């Protein structure tokens, strides 16, 4: 791993830690009155999720820029010039390390084995990208999934601030979360794996070596299994919200009809 990438990883780790401990409390207490009334454990998770949203926006938008404008990476997905991709991956690695430390130090309230598996699988694969500069297209493509994270975090913010589930903002965010999560984590699976399979047997694929090949394929399988599990949970939650909204609306219509009948019989 080059000095530049190590510097970015370390800088990201420190930067996200400062955002968590300094910037988020100041920003949140200024613009969200309910922030100061949260218990300490919720304050910790609030700051963690705000950092998560900032990271997701940075790397997600950077990912789209690379996919749209980095011709070298798109032309050679296995060995293309990885400069911008390594920068984006280094930012993500710094964030993943920061988040693992945060989870470890707050395991009793924030510990989640799924997130630990996700982070370790990602770090395992991204290590090859940073150390050898391989698979730039595929490494960058996986980061598109971060674009769903702000909606997931916003759902939690609404919940902890005790917004009713029937609130239009909550419902709209929930629907957007489900759609975006599906688009950037599930819908993209077939084209991603089609591009992966297209490299099998090629000279570029053989040059990777068994270590990189195993790290690439196994980590992708693990991440896609986790994404499928999360998608199922999100879809189930959306279904419950929609059914609840439909039930409330039917009840309101029934009451209106009953009142109308009573008015005519009085």
From TrEMBL:
GO cellular component: endoplasmic reticulum; membrane
TM ranges: 6-27, 48-67, 87-105, 170-193, 213-232
Residue ranges of every copy of the TLC domain listed in the record: 41-243
UniProt keyword list: Membrane, Transmembrane, Transmembrane helix
Keyword Transmembrane helix assigned: yes
InterPro entries: TLC-dom, TLCD
Domain of life: Eukaryota
Pfam families, per database record: TRAM_LAG1_CLN8 (PF03798)
Presence of the UniProt keyword Iron in the record: no
Membrane topology value: Multi-pass membrane protein
Name of the protein described by the UniProt record: TLC domain containing 4b
Source organism (scientific name): Hucho hucho (huchen)
Taxonomic path: Eukaryota, Metazoa, Chordata, Craniata, Vertebrata
């Amino acid at each position: 791993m080059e000095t530049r990438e190590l510097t970015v990883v370390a800088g990201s780790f420190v930067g996200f830690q400062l955002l968590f401990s300094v910037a988020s409390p100041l920003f949140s207490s200024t613009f969200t009155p309910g922030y100061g009334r949260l218990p300490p454990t919720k304050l910790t998770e609030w700051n963690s999720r705000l950092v998560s949203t900032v990271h997701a926006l940075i790397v997600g938008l950077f990912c789209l820029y690379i996919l749209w404008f980095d011709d070298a990476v798109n032309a050679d997905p296995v060995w293309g010039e990885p400069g911008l991709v390594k920068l984006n991956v280094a930012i993500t690695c710094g964030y993943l390390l920061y988040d693992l430390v945060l989870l470890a130090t707050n395991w009793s309230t924030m510990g989640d084995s799924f997130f630990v598996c996700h982070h370790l699988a990602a770090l395992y694969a991204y290590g090859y990208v940073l150390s050898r500069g391989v698979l730039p297209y595929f490494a960058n493509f996986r980061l598109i999934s971060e674009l769903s994270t702000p909606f997931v975090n916003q759902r939690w913010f609404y919940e902890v601030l005790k917004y009713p589930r029937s609130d239009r903002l909550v419902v709209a965010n929930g629907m957007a979360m489900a759609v975006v999560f599906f688009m950037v984590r599930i819908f993209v699976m077939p084209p991603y794996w089609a591009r992966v399979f297209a490299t099998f047997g090629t000279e570029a694929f053989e040059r990777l070596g068994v270590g990189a090949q195993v790290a690439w394929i196994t980590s992708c399988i693990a991440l896609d299994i986790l994404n499928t599990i999360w998608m199922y949970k999100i879809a189930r939650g959306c279904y419950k919200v929609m059914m609840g909204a439909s039930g409330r609306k039917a009840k309101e219509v029934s009451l209106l009809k009953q009142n109308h009948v009573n008015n005519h019989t009085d």
